[in-house]
Amino acid sequence: MRVLITGAAGFLGSHLCDRFLAEGHSVVGLDNFVTGHPDNIAHLMSDVRFEFMRHNISTYTYVSGALDGVLHFASPASPIDYLELPIQTLKVGSLGTHNALGLAKAKNARFFLASTSEVYGDPLVHPQTEDYWGNVNPVGPRGVYDEAKRFSEAITMAYHTYHGVDTRIVRIFNTYGPRMRPRDGRVVSNFIVQALTNEPLTIYGDGSQTRSFCYVSDEVDGIYRLFMHGNHTPTNIGNPDEYTVRQLAELVVELTGTSAPIVHEPLPVDDPKVRKPDISKARATLGWQPTVHVRDGLALTIEYFRRLIGTPHMAPRVARERPAGL
Ligand code: UDP
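A: This is the predicted complex of the input protein with uridine-5'-diphosphate.
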């Protein structure tokens, strides 16, 4: 197969490029480096089966040659990213998805949407099953991401129903591992970087809110199986192993051996109180379930971040300049 992956230089996108190449396929990687980084795909540049396009998928997109798949993974994906880039987040979920779907239709390719557990918002059903419609505040700070992804699911289903495009929708739950940006603001990267640099670990609120953390190799395996063998209705892919944020902080302290203290900061607006995927559908239809325990996944992630100490990647975050044309 020859597939296009948008967001190819991002955390998940780059791991997905690796997986498709490892399976013997060819990959066209597309990214505009708003939140992705060239380092994540530097190792692929000499691979003759990998082509790279620096491009913003929210604008008209032309790709030459045949494509068998279009996988749309481009989007800011951390709460502080979509707070800094609200319009771009809305555009890549809406216009970007439309362009990617149009491309898939023109090429007669399978379309794969990276959706999110954020479509469930602050969920009133726990664990979250795919038939739950969610509890989202459209005008809250997270609304730009949640509603863009909800729209992207709706337009994907419309292309399936009205244009007969072969489509897939994955709802991705919190995923972590190497190639996360050290200062991207998400809880796993924050806690590990803080622990390794002896800064206080910042628990937002009292730390009783829960998340369920999936190691990247498990997530990518679920995504690959869904692309190959799934159906068009949304499928949760995530690890149902649920932790409070406080438990996660304690685990990171233990695994890094840091002497950094734990401090509390205000809880962000609309922060979901609980999150855990029901993965019955993925188990039944894809034979998939996670295999990496959070202790092992965290150890691998800590090792990755340790290697970045002293590099510019670990420098404190500064407000991002808006790239031209976005
Ligand atoms: N969080 C935290 N400290 C941090 C970063 C995040 O306590 O330094 C909390 C955040 O409030 C949320 C959870 O950790 O309850 C997961 O946050 P993240 O940004 O990783 O992703 P989310 O699941 O909210 O999209």
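The longest strand covers residues 110-116. The longest helix spans residues 86-107.
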